[in-house]
Amino acid sequence: MSTVTSADGTTIGFDAYGQGRPLIIIDGATAHRAVNPTNAQVGELLSDEFRTYAYDRRGRGESTDTAPYAIQREIEDIAALIEDAGQPAILFGWSSGCLLALDAAAAGLPIAGLVLFEPPVVVDDVRPPLPSDYVEQLDAFVAEGRRDKAAELFMTAAVGMPAEAVAGMKQSPYWAPLEEIAHTIAYDGRIMGTTMSGNPLPTDRWAGVKVPVLVLYGDQTWPALSAGAQAVGAALPTATVRAIPGADHSAEAATLAPVLREFADLT
């Protein structure tokens, strides 16, 4: 593992694979290197041509955290990784990591292009919107030491799992690592803002994004997310939208690597 130090002193842990054009992979809510091996697999497949960064977002895995949280701090974390790379990077975001990647580009970081896999955007009534007090509920549960309730709220309100399915999940090995980083779920809630409200996307939030953008969605994903990908593509003048055959809200490294290579060749 390597580390960089963010502007506020937070240590960001990462693994880097290969040499060449920098590619920084930004996980979505709850994911980090210990539970998501796909980023490392992508890095290995692209190691002949890219230096791929798989990192733990602050508060997760082997990265530290510094209160109070602000989205700007996560943008600074990405800036520290780009500085380590020494040249403009392509950012690949998973789910809410897509929105963080867009925010980083809008903030003017040296970014060559963005690849966004299923941004969490709900612009219609095909599924219930997030509760308007979603972040406040998450913060309250964490403050009360009830991380299990924060994780439950994420799985039911954000992911859309039935309560009985979550009850079963609590008996699996997946649950303890989820509770461990449950305090960071509210971070992603802040990053999402109103994007899962069922209303149109804000027109000004990413107006500063001028780099090429590729928005991806799985052709087997939930209808809300495919519609959301189309909405993000329509909101960004430099964006192209593409379906990934056989994928849902995840995709295999062997499927993603050639798509990323092709995109990089065009930027």
Automatic annotation (TrEMBL):
Residues 40-250 form the AB hydrolase-1 domain. Pfam families: Abhydrolase_6. InterPro entries: AB_hydrolase (IPR050471), AB_hydrolase_1 (IPR000073), AB_hydrolase_fold (IPR029058). GO terms for molecular function: catalytic activity. This is Pimeloyl-ACP methyl ester carboxylesterase. It comes from Kribbella jejuensis.
